[in-house]
């Protein structure tokens, strides 16, 4: 079997797990087991640090007012509810501060629902405005929240409407609907509104999966990572089965590696989950010893059939950067792209370690139309690109190891 054929087999396996790879689900555990199994079959010893998480089941929603039915969706990880209460509205922060919402059904729209709110306990990135809206909502204590939203490619991918709240630590039941439907519902302001949502949070476990090829010389190592989880209701091919597949191809290529620098290959489990549990665990495990990370490499959204592969560098030394540019320019279809921060390489950047990120040149199109939706399927992946990326990464690791050996 050629490398591209093996890439395709890994890809299909990861995209076919049932129900999908959302953290806490059976499919997520199956995917991490598969990843660990492939590494073991290559002769690596594998560690699988475990974390607690919740899985979430949603059954149905009904929203009515004066005999009219409105189309709404339960926010991911929301609690269920059954409530009949007046509808109240807030479109701005001022209105939210003024509104009498206690026990009522609160419809949010306008400037309050432009962006998906970061989960309240999410520490990587949490704008003051999001924290303020979250705090106000909890203080106001509505019986339920309905958010009328449009699109937010930056944080919510290609979903329309997108869930304003996606937070297993937020306990007020919430739903979301399109801005158009929100306009219809707003006419019910002050009227008795009935909302029933059947949903359940379930305690579950998940794992990161990693292997370490120890360096012969020092504690310094290169960490190559990709998130293995996906959003609910998507096969998650480009986001991010492809990154995970590249890790497996690279593990195969590094079987004979005996460098001074260590190499860690890690499937992180949580980039698309509200509390990023795998990422938090990785941070804890590396607390106080991030200096041992020589370079962090992350892949997310790579391997799209159209366009090139785009790489970007963060905080690398000039010699490192030169070596990396050389390796990419000797391969087909690799370009240097714009810096971006919405994925796991931000862990290295925040901890002041050099980083390299790989994605597709058409990343913006993907996040606007494809990722986090059922459209993100293996047909959109060029397996030959995954093989090419794994070869480039092998060259980079060997190249950086030579540099390291010559200078230490
Ligand atoms: Zn992703």
Short account of what is shown:
This protein has 408 residues and is of the alpha/beta class.
Task: Explain what you see.
- This protein is of the alpha/beta class and 408 residues long.
- Helix content is 34%, strand content 25%.
- The protein is built from 12 helices and 15 strands.
- The chain has an 8-stranded mixed β-sheet with strand order 2-1-8-4-5-6-7-3. It has a 7-stranded mixed β-sheet with strand order 9-11-10-12-15-13-14, sandwiched between helices.
- Strand 13, helix 9 and strand 14 form a beta-alpha-beta unit.
- The structure holds zinc ion.
List the helices and strands and how they pair.
Layout: H1 3-16, H2 26-41, E1 50-65, E2 68-69, E3 73-74, E4 81-90, H3 93-98, E5 105-108, H4 128-140, E6 144-149, H5 153-156, E7 174-178, H6 179-186, E8 192-207, E9 209-213, E10 221-227, H7 237-253, E11 262-268, H8 277-286, E12 293-299, E13 309-314, H9 318-329, E14 334-336, H10 345-350, E15 355-360, H11 363-369, H12 383-407
Parallel strand pairs: 4-5, 5-6, 6-7, 10-11, 10-12, 12-15, 13-14
Antiparallel strand pairs: 1-2, 1-8, 3-7, 4-8, 9-11, 13-15
Helix pairs in contact: 1-7, 1-12, 7-12, 9-12
The site of zinc ion (ZN) has 7 residues, from helix 7.
